[in-house]
Amino acid sequence: MKKHKIFKSNPNLKEVHMTSDGEAFYNDNDAKMHAKTLEDKSVELVVNPSLIQETIVDDSDDEEFEAPEFEAPKFEAPEFDAPEFEAPEFDAPKFEALEFEAPEVDAPEVDVPEVVTPEAETPPVEAPEAKAEKVTTKKGK
Question: Would residue 61 count as lying in a domain?
């Protein structure tokens, strides 16, 4: 079906989706599914020409448009007498450093052992001489 005939037989139809073989579909997805079976897989949206309004612009007079002058009214904020505010005086307390002596405590005496490092306590040990031993093995069965 040709593009113009579909809208003559269906004048209230807004648009159709046309595949390359001329089939018209209401739904874009249906048209794409059908187009997959064709060699040319294109789908074209066709709008009913009777719904397209043509706008003609008349540029015959070359006069430039000038907007009328407009003066915005002046706005004056009303005067406002705010009451004066005085912060009350405030005497912050003064802090002085306190002297403090820790009381003496009778703590039991503890014997602390003397710490001795291993190097100082142990003399260096020499490695014993390696003795060569003859090892014989028996072949197993």
Answer: no
